[in-house]
Structures are given as structure tokens and as C-alpha cells.
Write a structure and sequence with these properties.
Layout: E1 3-4, E2 9-13, E3 16-21, E4 26-30, H1 33-54, H2 57-63, E5 66-69, E6 72-75
Parallel strand pairs: 1-6
Antiparallel strand pairs: 2-3, 3-4, 5-6
Amino acid sequence: MSSITLKVNVFKEGDVYVALCPMLNVSSFGDDIEHAKSSLKEALEAFLEECEAMGTLEAVLEETGFIKKKTTWVPEEPIMEEKITLFC
């Protein structure tokens, strides 16, 4: 059994909270932050289980920038991260 470390972002959209795992492009929602995160965890588990069942889990994780260290998948860490503003 291996583990995976994932980044989660939570946004408020109207009356609901949306939880997003940007690395895997999986999201879910809830009436509050904790419910949104719990729903996202269920969605991520289902996504990863389906990838495992199809035999594509390692390929999906590698394609999305994860590195396997022993039994843990970790996201590749950027050497720099910043926001920029563009005008269009």
C-alpha cells in the first residue's frame, strides 16, 4: 500500500464551498468547508481506485507531476512559485 500527498484548494461559490485538487483536476462541493473537503476526499479515493483498477495509476500520477519516494507519491516541488498579472 502506498500513500499520496495532495494539495487542496477551497473556494466559496455562491452558497456552497468547492474543494479542488488542482493536481488531478478533481473537485467536489459541500455546504461548509469540512463537508467540501470530505466530499473531495471521497471523489479522490474513487478516482484513484478506478485508475488502479484500470492499471493506469502510476502513469496518471507520473503524467501529473508526482514522484514516487519509497511508498509515498509526492508532488514535484517547483523551484519558484509566484502570481503574475496579464492584461488582455
